[in-house]
Amino acid sequence: MGQICVFFVHRFIPNQSLVKAGLTDVILDLIRSKGVDEFWLGGYGDFDHLAFEVLRSIKKEHPTITRSLALAYLPTNQEDYDWKKSSYDHVFCPEGIEEGPLRFAICRRNKWLAQNADFVVCYVDTKSGGAYQAVRIAKSAGKTIINLANS
Q: What is the pLDDT, as a whole number, of residue 9?
């Protein structure tokens, strides 16, 4: 089994075209030199959409990579779930997201992702918010962090 990369970011990112170029380079390097073959996405916001599009393009050259959607909430209707299953290679709910208040489901999912991925690619430029907290968890777990906001 190969390595896993997860993406964390604040909901909105500035200068998407510049970030897209850096993200493409990072993903290609992770595939070619680090053996990453699975990419976990959260499915929310600008960066997740951008990462999804970059991975869709890269998948043409590297068809064995997997784009996985990590749900924070269990699907509420079949149509929404079917769309997600048809758009991603894999859709899953991390262990434990159903425990505790619903309003903390994204935090629980992000904690699980941070602890179980090998690499974190992020765009975090503030010291607050869910993405910042997830990156802190990953860092304390010894994961490799690549912050595109520092590029």
A: 85
Write the CATH number of the domain with boundaries 3-150.
Answer: 3.40.50.450
| 68: Cβ contacts below 8 Å, ≥ 6 apart | 38, 39, 40, 41, 88, 89, 90, 91, 92
**Which regions in the chain score pLDDT beneath 50?**
none
Report the distance separating Cα 55 and Cα 71, nearest Å: 18
Q: What is the pLDDT of residue 86?
A: 83
For residues 134 and 132, what is the distance between their CA atoms, to the nearest angstrom? 6
How crowded is the C-beta side of 125, counted as CA atoms within 13 Å?
10
Least Cα distance to 135 among 9, 5, 4, 45 occurs for 9
Provide the angle, in degrees to the nearest 10, between the axes of the packed helices 45-61 and 16-34: 50
Q: Indicate the length of the chain as a whole number.
A: 151
Please count the other Cβ atoms lying within 10 Å of the Cβ belonging to residue 55.
Answer: 23
pLDDT tens digits, one per residue of 38-62: 999 998 878 888 999 999 999 999 9
pTM: 0.91
> What is the residue extent of each domain of the chain?
3-150
